[in-house]
Design goal:
The chain is α/β, with parallel strands linked by helices. Helices cover 37% and strands 13% of the residues.
Length: 468
């Protein structure tokens, strides 16, 4: 009873744009992430500007050092590793007919090395890496043409890696388009533009692209498991005041809207009311309804980091649960203001599994905080061990309650450039990387205390979590 199910996938997760570096090497084009210097919170640039430091242009040089890093992950016992294929390595502009062979070769070699080490690739097809050219020349995902560019990209990678990759996710945190539309949907909102109109139209095109990609992928290899991916950090009512409770539920539906379409194959009953309330008119083609029905996802991947509170009167549209709200006095907080709530993860698992009865995959969960390098060179990150241990115990409890959970990939298993703030000092890793916020450092990799702890968790299939 104190172990996880047989075949549970244990591993870690990163995104190409946060680890690879080599942003303009071997034919790679610019993605939306390449022009964001200070993280998603401060996304203000729409081109690479001279004299500005972009941490992710070099990142931790995983592009050159992936064998070293994968060897460390294999030492921890990873059975899977989640990363993304950077779209602009394959199609530098996004609308080309022929792919960039140098980009394809890199992922050939990366996945081959993973498989050699016994690590199953888990691949995000689009992880905040929409080609910048498609934003500049087509308007990003508000333009239906992106569906066909995306599908051409999918056809190339599905065919190329059909014998190397089994697990795929179509879009990273697709519901994040509400609060980071440029990164998540390649959308530039004009100063006086209708943000919600753009967000919902772009989302529709992404739903169609995902559905068609699922259908295509299953034809190329029927063993493919293709999931959606959402940010599902949860939200509680601040009080038992009915307006707080109702508003909390309405906020959660802003996230469920996305999984409802991608898992059920049709727009939920509350969608029409939302569109009317905010004067949204979604342009759809006659065949779209049928496409959505035929292309539902195989599983739900999601990120979970924190929870927050909803108070009556807060703006509901334009954000998603867990990314706004007031502080919960019963919870501790990270230096970046994220509240630590392991039970919230158990709640999310139960809510989502009860809603869809489909497999869940926790593909992001981790603690971003400041690590101290001791005089002996060690990093005594007991706080990270406590964080992961408490969350994994709640995952186990959710499984005991009937949730079908495929696996767990700890976010930022090696120190990476923070997506939210563009910093290196906000460290998640079980592996330390010697690089600071200004790009200084040797890039030396060093095991933290949590490295050996996580290795034991994996080796015992979770049993070590309960030995104390």
């Amino acid at each position: 009873m104190n172990t996880f199910k047989k075949g549970f996938l244990w591993g870690g997760a990163v995104a190409a744009n946060q680890v690879e570096g080599a942003y303009n090497v071997n034919g790679k084009g610019l993605s939306v992430s390449d022009v964001i210097p200070n993280g998603l919170i401060g996304e203000k640039h729409y081109k690479v500007e001279s004299g500005v430091y972009y941490p992710n242009h070099d990142a931790i040089e995983f592009y050159y050092r992936y064998k070293e890093d994968l060897a460390l992950m294999a030492e921890m016992g990873f059975t899977c590793f989640r990363t993304s294929i950077n779209w602009t390595r394959i199609f530098p502009k996004g609308d080309e007919l022929e792919p960039n062979e140098e980009g394809l070769k890199f992922y050939d070699e990366l996945f081959a090395e993973m498989l050699r080490l016994g690590i199953e690739p888990v691949v995000t097809i689009s992880h905040y890496e929409t080609p910048l050219y498609l934003v500049d020349h087509y308007g990003g995902w508000t333009n239906r043409k992106l569906i066909y560019f995306y599908l051409h990209y999918c056809e190339v990678i599905f065919t190329r890696y059909k014998d190397k990759v089994k697990y795929w996710m179509t879009f990273n945190e697709i519901n994040a388009i509400h609060f980071i539309p440029f990164a998540a949907g390649g959308i530039r909102i004009p100063a006086n533009g209708n943000k919600l109109q753009s967000v919902f139209q772009a989302s529709h095109h992404m739903f169609i692209a995902s559905s068609l990609a699922v259908q295509m992928g299953h034809k190329i290899n029927n063993d493919f498991q293709i999931g959606c991916m959402l940010t599902l950090s949860t939200m509680y009512p601040a009080t038992c005041k009915p307006e707080d409770v109702l508003g909390t539920y309405q906020m959660k539906k802003r996230s469920w809207y996305f999984s409802d379409v991608m898992m059920r194959g049709y727009y939920p009953s509350y969608a029409k009311q939302m569109w009317e309330q905010y004067n949204i008119e979604i342009v759809m083609e006659e065949e779209d309804e049928d496409i959505l029905k035929k292309g539902t996802c195989d599983y739900i991947g999601f990120s979970y980091y924190r929870s927050s509170l909803y108070e009556d009167g807060m703006v509901i549209m334009g954000d998603t649960a867990g990314n706004t709200g007031t502080s919960n006095p019963y919870l501790d907080t990270t230096p970046w203001g994220w509240q630590i709530d392991p039970i919230g993860l158990r709640l999310v698992c139960n809510e989502i599994y009860d809603r869809y009865q489909a497999p869940l995959f926790i593909v992001e969960n981790g603690l971003g905080t400041i690590d101290k390098l001791e005089k002996d060179g060690s990093i005594q990150d007991d706080y990270r061990i406590d964080y992961v241990k408490s969350h994994l115990k709640e995952v186990h409890a959710a499984m005991q309650e009937g949730c079908d959970i495929m696996g767990y990939t700890y976010w930022g298993c090696i120190d990476i450039v923070s997506a939210g703030t563009g910093e290196m000092k906000k460290r998640y890793g079980l592996i330390y990387v010697d690089r600071d916020n200004e790009g200084n450092g040797t890039l030396e990799r060093r095991k933290k205390k949590s490295f050996d702890w996580y290795r034991e968790v994996i080796a015992t299939n979770g049993q070590s979590l309960f030995k104390d």
